[in-house]
Amino acid sequence: MADLVTITVDGVEMQGPAGEVLIKVAEDNGNYIPRFCWHSRMNPVGMCRMCLVEVEGPRGKMLVPSCTTRINDGMVVDTQSAVVKKAQEGVLEFLLINHPLDCPVCDKGGECPLQDHTVAYGPGESRFVEEKRHFQKPIPISDLVFLDRERCILCARCTRFSEEISGDPLIEFKGRGNQVQVLTFPDEPFNSYFSGNTVQICPVGALTARPYRFKARPWDLEAVESVSMVDSVGSKVSVQSSQNRVVRIDGVDSDATNHGWLSDKDRFVFEAIHSEDRLQRPLIKEGDEFREADWGEALDLVAEKLTGYPGDQVAGLGGANSTNEEAFIFGKFLRTIVVTPHIDAQLDDGLDPQFLVGLTPRAAINDLESAKTILLWAADLKEEYPVLYLRVRRAATELGATLIIVHPRRTGLDDVARHKVRYRPGTGPDVLRELVAGEGEYADIKAALTEGPVVTIVGRTGLGEDPRLAEAVAAFGRDFPDGKVLPLARRGNVIGALDMGLAPTLLPGRVSETAAHEKLEAEWGPLPEGLGRDATSILEGLCDGELKALLLLGTDPVRDHPEPMLATAGMEAADFVVAFDTFLTDSSRLADVVFPVEGFAEVEGTVTNVEGRVQKVNRLIPGPGQTRPVWSALDDLARRMGGDVGATSAEAISKEIATVAPAYHGVSWDELDWGEGREGLLLPLEEGEQRLEYIPVDGNLTSVKARFGLHLARVMYDDGVRVRKSPSLAALIPDAAAYLSAAEVETLGIEPGALVTVAGESGSITLPAVVDNTLGEGTVYVTANLSKTAELGAAVSVTVTPGGEA
Amino acid sequence: MSTDGQVKILTARMEANRTDSHTIERYEATGGYTALRKGLLELGPEKVGAEVKASNIRGRGGANFPAGVKWGFLAAARPAYLVVNGDESEPGTFKDRQLLERDPHQLVEGVILTSFAVGVNHAFIYIRGEYPKPARRLQHAVDDAYQKGYIGKDILGSGFDLEITVHLGAGAYICGEESALLNSLEGRRGEPRLKPPFPAIEGLYAKPTIVNNVETISNVPWIINNGGLAYAGIGPEKSAGTRMLSLSGHVNNPGNYEIVMGMSWRDLIFDIGGGMAEGRELKAWIPGGSSAPWFVPAEHLDTPVTIDDVAQHGSMLGSGAVIVMDDSTDVIAAAHRIVRFYAHESCGQCTPCREGTTWLERIFNRILSGRGRPSDIDLLLDVSDGISPGLGWPPVMTTICPLGPSATAPVVSLMKYFRAEVEARIAREVAHG
Fold this sequence. Notes:
The complex is a heterodimer of chains A (about 800) and B (about 425). By secondary structure, chain A is an alpha/beta fold. In chain A, about 25% of the residues lie in helices and about 20% in strands. The radius of gyration of chain A is 28 Å and the shape is globular. The termini of chain A are far apart. Chain B has about 425 residues and is an alpha/beta fold. Chain B has 19 helices and eight strands. Chain B has helices at about 10-15, 25-30, 35-45, 45-55, 65-70, 95-100, 105-120, 130-145, 180-185, 215-220, 220-225, 230, 265-270, 295-300, 305-310, 330-345, 350-370, 375-385, 405-430, and strands at about 80-85, 120-125, 165-170, 210-215, 240-250, 255-260, 280-285, 320-325. In chain B, helix 3 (about 35-45) crosses helix 11 (about 220-225), helix 6 packs parallel to helix 8 (about 130-145) and helix 17 runs antiparallel to helix 18 (about 375-385). The longest helix of chain B has 30 residues, at about 405-430.
């Protein structure tokens, strides 16, 4: 921490860290200096000149830009002098001479810094009577963003964001002087995963977003703060609606997580909320078709069926896309009403639950701010955890951290990494052994890892990878100087779901089933004995008849389980399947009863991110049709089965969580809404009894090396239901392909684009072959989360043969 | 010494050898690269630097900052770089062009000595893209010097290594501003940087960098051969040595002149310049490039041509470009021409320059096309004030670099000395309109 120094601004003394920019210190102390180009999360450039103030110097008062002036002790500043006011009027009059009078038709009107500053600091009239400069307007620069160059005030916020923050320098200034314009490069649209941020930070209406254009006026909007549930990073958002339709999601600056940035998926996936295909009424399967039913009829049917099975013949999957409160009640319902131990929020596509929530010392995202070295051995962050990608990128480019990446293929962070290790899928254990030994080409990396603090980020690089590898890397990472580890699993609230006990080995509150069983029984009454099955075992049990019934909470095993054939077979073999969902998915389509539930922006509750930070999601609009909150449906169902889960409201559930779940003692909605928890509460809040002790995996994993190792990894725009039902994003779903190096394509004797069949132990698919020279010998990369590739299933060893039927 | 009794340092060789002064053969035959030997093999880096400091030579690019002092600012971290600014773009300036075309080895030898003195092993010479012939001549000179072992590894057995790269600009006046030049050299947009940090601390590729003008460095061989004190003894103390002036406009003898400072403007225009062409009357002149406020006969004809005297009288000797206007000049059109240049050359980064210079140009357009308004005079001055508050000298800036304020200089001068003409022009058009 820098030393605090004292400065005087307009006669008022205030303090700030030595070397901080004047504009920020003033603002933090209540003195707002107008600006356009300065943004608190980017480096200052001093271009717009709106922030000019006078600072006393040896030769009298000097006019300086406050965004590039760094404070020192004793600085005396005047922001109100006649010279400053004349300069401010001048800058605004200058900006307005070429700015078009578009306010009546411009999205930004009503939340426009240029409007606001003109009213507050500008001259009453413009004296410009000449012709303004003109450009064709607006022009689309990508599928999501439009550019109006006449409105642009050339503050460079968008170009600087793209270069400095997101690493996608796809827009840049062209030309000189009055003809400068922001443009894309020829044949390269602004296809950045983060393009929406430039729309949000543009101080005028030069950049507008297709999903929001002309939809609403800011003064018509209602808004709540919430957390994006697209992934588990926990980015803070503002969800905004007009007439009970969500029309926009903006990023909110949270120092702990996203710094105000969002991925375009976080930002635009709201479109799915109002899709026509939202489930609005309960559905009951008759024959092969669904018919609509009333809640009462459907609940009675489910209650009757479920009471007919012994508890341990019923299983529950899901909860990773639900709030903590919903997940908690789901678990309580399964354990105390159905009385089954077979519960899993993951689909065998993440990591061991005790490892995920029990690992210590766990890194917080803000540990990246002080990390000297970062070891990243996980998924491609840019595709799966985009906002975390931004934070790691910042550490490597702005904060001087040494970034080491181990991955089968080129990642979005390669350009800013000091060391990159690429390996054939399946040979990870060998690579880890060499990394630990630290010889030869690994010597530099080993040396870098002795410079602490070290943050290690672990996760499965692909769906076929052994999850125990991530655990072994974590064990390695804990031993570094000031070593902390961040284990990653992707779904919006997977961590929260596991925290609520939705795993066979866990009970609510980050405690193991074995250690906490007795204590919980004292609260809840009789609990099922013995550890339950995990997701794969559940599906196998359904297949061989040992399990009869299945409950699905917001989950789609047919698409997302690494063995889709097993999932389909299990669901078809099941006697009775009940789904709670917002859309009909490939899995809920196979159910016997489907309940329509409220989803994001319709529910109030908490979610927990990868760091273990609990944050509040808030309700803005009612759900459509006859949707009900999940907890309400389960409460009703429990009553009809003769029991009581005590779910009277989501807040009441949160209070029970705070009592029953040790790691969540002290977490309250009040604290999150009004107290210290405005940026969430990082768990654990207290050292409690029954804390989960993670026992590291016992090493000696073996490498698998076949002719081809399969790297089966996700991309950001999958064709899951939320993206498909958001029209703006659906257009961006890529085509499935099998990626191979040019050498391998040649060895196979085919032309790029020809069909190849990739076959593993779970299935096979036929795809066009695309050349990707970031892949090594014997590696084939297939994008995981497209419905086409779901038929392949996860495997490590595959064969690749030319030909096949698409 | 040359025939007219004035000291000639920079132009001596080219005056005496009208056809081949740019060749290495002529250069070596006329004492070339002796300073290099003396500097590298006898004096050593500190003494070379000391001689230049003792010479009191002030930069010849426009800012007139003492070169020896500037060299002292160079941070200790290495590598460091020397960048020679050959972007000569200030309208009215064409001296560096002649130095590059007619005596490039003089510059090359100066670059090697300077690099040696400050501890640089890679020097860059940035030539404006519109100078293909000077750039070619310079590249030949550099190639020949490499061949002779004056550049490269272990020069003359001194243990000193140096690489020299000649780089062409791409047509932007703003790339003559040192930090924009560095950006251009790095392959970025030619836009001035925020200062601090200054180039001597963080310059090319964020390393310590000295930027000097072509003419400044071209003096170094003579200074080493004859001693810094000898240079300091030429002319007035604070404007020591000789300097090139580019004289143009309505004089009988326009051209580049190497002079000793101290004479009056009268002497310069009427003696050296041969007086007004076609016997016309002197109306005004620009003493130091288009960025400089104008001088008029009534006030400035008998003031001295020295850096400090010109500054005291509210202008600058700048790049040494003297543009002379006679009484046939439409001064409004002249001011407009200069303003139009700056609007065209503005890099566009900052609001007051980008928008203000364009606005000034458009107002002038209107006045010159007969649609001026009486309020335009105060408007021109107020717009200028938005770029340079107070319209004083030296200018206060609301801008990132001095280009913006440069555009206001002709406006202020026009209104100061020729306001009546502007009023008359507007009134005339309004009456007829």
